[in-house]
Write a structure and sequence with these properties.
By secondary structure, the chain is of the alpha+beta class. The chain is built from two helices and two strands; from the N terminus they run E-E-H-H. The two termini are about 25 Å apart.
C-alpha cells in the first residue's frame, strides 16, 4: 500500500493534497496503529504494576515513566 501525495507550490505556501480514498485508508490505519500502541503501553503498565520484586513506590514511578514516554511518542 502506498499513499500518494501531490505537492503544489504557491508563492508563499506549499500544500499537500491527499486523495479521498488515501485519506480514508490512512484513518483506518491510524485507528489500528493507535489501538496497538495503547495495548502495548497497557501491557507494560500491567507488568510494572505486578512486579513483585519492587516496592510500591518504585512500581508507581515505573508506571509514571511509561505513561510519560507514551505521551512523548
Amino acid at each position: 500500500m502506498t499513499l500518494f501525495f501531490r505537492i503544489t507550490q504557491t508563492p508563499n505556501l506549499m500544500t499537500r493534497e491527499i486523495s479521498e480514498s488515501d485519506w480514508q485508508l490512512f484513518r483506518k490505519l491510524h485507528a489500528v496503529a493507535l489501538e496497538r500502541f495503547c495495548a502495548r503501553l497497557l501491557n507494560e503498565i500491567d507488568a510494572a504494576r505486578t512486579a513483585a520484586e519492587t516496592g510500591s513506590h518504585q512500581r508507581y514511578l515505573d508506571i509514571c515513566r511509561i505513561i510519560e514516554r507514551g505521551s512523548q511518542e
